[in-house]
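Question (not urgent): is this output format expected?
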Amino acid sequence: MKALRITFAVIFVVPILVLSPLYAFFIAYLMEVAGMEKAAQNHLRRCGSFIGSVILFFLGVRLVVTGRENLPETREGICYMGNHQSMLDIPAFVGPAKLWGSVMAKVEVKKIPIINLWCKAMKIIFIDRKSPHDSIKAIFTGVEHLKSGGNLLIFPEGTRSKTGKIGELKAGSIKLATRSRATIVPFAIKNLRPGFEGITNLKRVHASMAIGKPIETKDLSKEELAGLHEVVYGAITDLFDQLP
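Got this back:
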């Protein structure tokens, strides 16, 4: 069942992805040449959102997103933090949720054709996990990215949960937000894993995502900063428990 469902999705998704240099990046390039840089960025985001939604659709996943009214108006300098269930979390984030932000990824990813173009568009921060020095450098890059008004997507658990439940939040991940004084927007995702890693049948998968209220970090005291990871963890788990 899993092979059949994934093969079906690949048949439709791969051509859309392969053609993206034309309908996404070439059009964006023309916009930039015409001096329409912001329009070019918005075009790439719309195309990225389209691809993310297409991936979920052809895998038979229907994602219901709630809480978009909680998003800050500026949409700049935001550190999105949520639980990590599936490889579909990022397509869900940029697709149906219509959010956008850099992520940290293995350096090997930028060697994949076409995917590397999207990595550049999303300003992916690459990490060579074999090099501790490179990991530290990536953290500083993430901090500067947030300070400059960019957005960052972080999964504080550090790895995908195979049980569907929320794992332990690594307190170190909070430092990216606190050092940059970024706004943290917590979110929770439930039931995406059956759409890919845990496929057992061909039935449609009903998943859900909730976006919580922003947590400001710029005016927090030392005591509040010390307990911030518990506040964020509590916000994510509360959102998760409220999802169907």
